[in-house]
Amino acid sequence: MSAIPMERPVLEDDEAAALTGLAARVRELAEATVLTGADAAEAAAVADEVAALTARLTAERRGAPPFVTPGERRMDRQIANPVTGPLNPFAPPIGLEVTSDGVVRGEFTLGAVYEGPPSYVHGGVSAMVLDQALGMAAAATGTPGMTATLETRYRRPTPLGVPLQVEAKASRVEGRKVYASGTISAPDGRVTVEATAMFIMPQRFVTSEY
Amino acid sequence: MSAIPMERPVLEDDEAAALTGLAARVRELAEATVLTGADAAEAAAVADEVAALTARLTAERRGAPPFVTPGERRMDRQIANPVTGPLNPFAPPIGLEVTSDGVVRGEFTLGAVYEGPPSYVHGGVSAMVLDQALGMAAAATGTPGMTATLETRYRRPTPLGVPLQVEAKASRVEGRKVYASGTISAPDGRVTVEATAMFIMPQRFVTSEY
């Protein structure tokens, strides 16, 4: 039903490094696009150059985003993930670490492309970050799954352009269901957004390497 | 507290058109980056070219994303919004229309940069789309606000690369609070994700033009 296949190309380390560098430059270009004061003629000229670079990249095109080499958890292999993936220009990207006691933590800063209310993070972007962090906390229990429910409560606006903290932890596992909760905090330590979620491991994952 | 000011530059029509075209090209470049099969040397060479284009755009840089000319609802003016904004390469972008009876509707297709589980839309991306649609439905009541709570339920996976429908409507207004609900549906008409949310109009917006 989906137009993108499940099978994944796997990158060699040097390819992954080069593509990660490329994604970082495209991420900067996206922010520059939102903030540029270039006039119409210059914007159009740059657009033509961008189209030419896209043509170079699509000369060899994969059917699906690549993974990095196996041997790690599957979530870590998805380097094009829209929240954590260094290969994805759309991702901030947020480096989420899992501690030995299963706590997921990351520090991140969101720029102009993630703006909702003027000068604040879009509420949906905060939900996206929390979905990823809570999902990783769920996976850290050994029962990874897909999001079944996500409840997000916004306690105060989340500022753009300053270091934010995200933290998440699973609270319990019931069969194929895992419950997790987490927060986003501002530099002053105050929680701006909190979330709870339930993840369900699909039957087809139970015997796979997910 | 936020690093991005509230004040907005306002674009002339020709500037908005040129920047919208540029954003569309950068959006294509981002997808090409995730799917390219270019080798490490070619990826690095393209990255250098991208950096040069970023330098051209940042020669004149604004402090905040621009709005389009006044006279419309404020939400429509935010053309760099991460869900609906044609000026934002990070946005799909989704054209959300508000009918005369307050229903928000849009059709959209999400590509590889929005992938969560292999071949499916990231759960957090679906939440982001729903937050925006429900927020616009809330605003259509005449009481726009910031997201206070968002509850998202995932009924089945949402496929990438096929036309999806999003629909939202406000259910009731209580003072400065507005309740809304909505869904994302697959091409077969089945609901993949449903959401309810509550939005609160900040006191400072009550007398403003928001």
UniProtKB/TrEMBL annotation, chains A, B:
Domain of life: Bacteria
Record Pfam families: 4HBT (PF03061)
EC number: 3.1.2.2
Ranges where the Thioesterase domain occurs: 120-191
CDD domains hit by this protein: PaaI_thioesterase
Gene3D superfamilies for the chain: Hotdog Thioesterase
UniProt keyword terms in alphabetical order: Apoptosis, Cell membrane, Cell projection, Cytoplasm, Fatty acid metabolism, Hydrolase, Lipid metabolism, Membrane, Transit peptide
GO MF annotations in UniProt: hydrolase activity
InterPro entries xref list: HotDog_dom_sf (IPR029069), THEM4/THEM5_acyl-CoA_thioest (IPR052365), Thioestr_dom (IPR006683)
Catalytic reaction list: hexadecanoyl-CoA + H2O = hexadecanoate + CoA + H(+); octanoyl-CoA + H2O = octanoate + CoA + H(+); dodecanoyl-CoA + H2O = dodecanoate + CoA + H(+); decanoyl-CoA + H2O = decanoate + CoA + H(+)
Gene Ontology biological-process annotations: fatty acid metabolic process
Localization, UniProt: Cell projection, Ruffle membrane; Cytoplasm; Membrane
Membrane topology listed for this record: Peripheral membrane protein
GO CC annotation, single: cytoplasm
Family: Belongs to the THEM4/THEM5 thioesterase family.
Entry protein name: Acyl-coenzyme A thioesterase THEM4
Organism annotation: Actinomadura citrea
